[in-house]
Automatic annotation (TrEMBL):
It comes from the Bacteria. InterPro entries: Bact_StressResp_Reg, STAS_dom, STAS_dom_sf. The lineage of its organism: Bacteria, Bacillati, Actinomycetota, Actinomycetes, Kitasatosporales. This is Anti-anti-sigma factor. Gene3D superfamilies: STAS domain (3.30.750.24). CDD domains: STAS_RsbR_RsbS_like.
Length: 136
């Protein structure tokens, strides 16, 4: 697999965690394709966690909110934990103003904190022995 869904949304695998994101261009057809591909990948890759970065999402409507809730429910049924990361303040305000609650959806301030919640931590030191011989 090349890491992209049929609608062009990247789904990257980092160990047993899948990392993906949502953009503003999410329509009904692309949302269904995205959800289908992501749930298939959860199952086929044996993912125990999914990070959905929405930091590039400038607006949200009831459709996108419902898609996130359904995706979280499906992933949970497949044994994976979903964290939605990077929600912008205007998106949070819109959700509250519309009376939409993302029931069952875990959130994190940013992708780094979301990955930490899924058990991934940034190493404090760079990797040793990068494979380059600098003594020549």
């Amino acid at each position: 697999m090349n890491g992209r869904t049929s609608n062009g949304v990247p789904i990257l695998r980092l160990g047993d965690v899948l990392v993906t994101g949502l953009l503003n261009e999410l329509d009904d057809k692309s949302a269904v394709a995205f959800t289908d591909e992501l749930t298939t990948r959860i199952s086929s890759d044996g993912a125990r966690g999914v990070l959905v970065d929405i930091s590039r999402l400038e607006i949200i409507d009831s459709f996108v909110a419902r898609t996130l809730m359904e995706l979280t429910t499906m992933a949970r049924l497949l044994g994976a934990r979903v964290i939605v990361a990077g929600m912008r303040p205007p998106v949070a305000i819109t959700l509250v103003e519309l009376g939409l609650q993302l029931d069952g959806v875990e959130t994190a301030l940013n992708a780094e904190l979301g990955m930490a919640a899924l058990g991934w931590y940034q190493s404090a030191q760079p990797p040793q022995g990068g494979g380059r011989d600098t003594d020549r």
